[in-house]
Write a structure and sequence with these properties.
The protein is 50% helix and 12% strand. It is α/β, with parallel strands linked by helices. It has one domain: Alpha-Beta Barrel (TIM Barrel). It is globular, with a radius of gyration of 19 Å. The structure holds adenine (ADE) and zinc ion (ZN).
Length: 341
């Protein structure tokens, strides 16, 4: 069937699943499934305010970013030993294999763990072992983005950068996440300058809940190569023009935006308008079990609500490969597959 025709959902989804895709905005701590949360809580005798998986699901009813973060940090408290970090990462990478995500650039929040007395090495060793297993077992490609928590001060981010030194070769990028409002990018100008000088590729969350000025700040002060979310750029025409002209990638997370009330419903999500305006947008899942789905669930919701078609899905897949930090040779290989009929 030619591209662009209205495929039935099942056919559409299997066609999208078969497209080689990169996921560029995914918090590994945000992949903690309720079943794993309950299992690890029992394993480590961590008490949770939930008695069952159903109660966990019921708690995932968010009014804004902070209401989600409170529950996300609580959940991360069950991750304690190296095997937990391995299991978390391996489960997500297995999902990548099933969804045609050929490469993933994965955020992790070291401060969420080191502040609880878990060593940086425990976290890294579990993640790296899982990434190596997935690479060996089915050729899964992945990389790490070390994200600083923006509600903490810049000194703490500097300490984290220092702790990462022994793992420098295993961490590709630095990022900025957590509570956006009141914590503008400029607060982290120094640590980003230092990270860039050490060769980290800089990205940052901006324009999720924060205003367009935060996107300008991330570009001009932190000198980021990608913006995570960035949906509020639409409030500033000059910014949209700049993002289009420089083809700066925006890692958009549609289900997340709806669940965190950035947009009231998927029907109001501007992803397709952004694509039409020439913005370099990609689709991503952010924190899948918290927001109702993984990458393919995002594509499904866009198809059902906004009539996303296969041509548009292909453009999004091409953007995801192009916007990754893969080498140009590897990108070319995936892009060739994407351009074949
Ligand atoms: N940490 C995990 N998910 C996040 C999001 N969507 N925004 C900011 N920080 C996060
Ligand atoms: Zn995010």
């Amino acid at each position: 069937m030619p591209l662009g025709m209205n495929l039935v959902t099942e056919e559409f989804l299997s066609a999208v699943r078969a497209l080689p895709k990169a996921e560029l905005h995914l918090h590994i701590e945000g992949t903690l499934e309720p079943a794993m949360l309950m299992r690890l809580a029992a394993k480590h005798s961590v008490s949770l305010p939930y008695q069952s998986e159903a109660e966990v699901h019921a708690a995932y009813d968010f009014s804004d970013l902070q209401s989600f973060l409170d529950i996300y940090y609580l959940g991360a408290g069950v991750l304690i030993d190296e095997q937990d970090f391995y299991d978390l990462m391996f489960a997500y990478l297995s999902r990548c294999r099933d969804e045609g995500i050929v490469h993933s650039e994965i955020m992790f929040d070291p401060q969420t763990h080191t502040d609880r007395g878990i060593s940086f090495g425990t976290v890294m060793d579990g993640f790296l072992r899982a990434m190596a297993s997935a690479q060996r077992e089915w050729g899964q490609s992945s990389a790490l983005i070390m994200s600083f928590l923006r509600h903490l001060d810049e000194d703490r981010a500097f300490q984290t950068l220092k702790q990462a030194e022994p793992y420098r070769d295993h961490i590709q990028s630095v990022g900025l996440d957590s509570s956006e409002l009141g914590h503008p990018p400029e607060k982290f100008a120094g640590v980003y300058a230092e990270a860039r000088s050490q060769g980290y590729r800089p990205v940052a969350h901006a324009g999720e809940e924060g205003p367009p000025e935060y996107i300008w700040g991330a570009l001009n002060t932190l000198e980021v190569e990608r913006i995570d979310h960035g949906v509020r750029c639409l409030e500033d025409d000059a910014l949209v023009q700049h993002l289009v002209e420089h083809q700066i990638p925006l890692t958009v997370c549609p289900l997340s935006n709806v669940r965190l009330c950035v947009f009231p419903e998927m029907l109001q999500h501007p992803l397709l308008d952004m694509l039409d305006r020439g913005l370099n947008v990609t689709v991503n899942s952010d924190d899948p079990p918290y927001f109702g789905g993984y990458l393919m669930d995002n594509f499904e919701s866009l198809h059902e609500n906004l009539s996303l078609d296969l041509d548009q899905a292909k453009r999004l897949a091409v953007n995801s490969i192009n916007s990754s930090f893969l080498s140009s040779d590897i990108k070319e290989g995936w892009l060739t597959q994407l351009s074949s009929p």
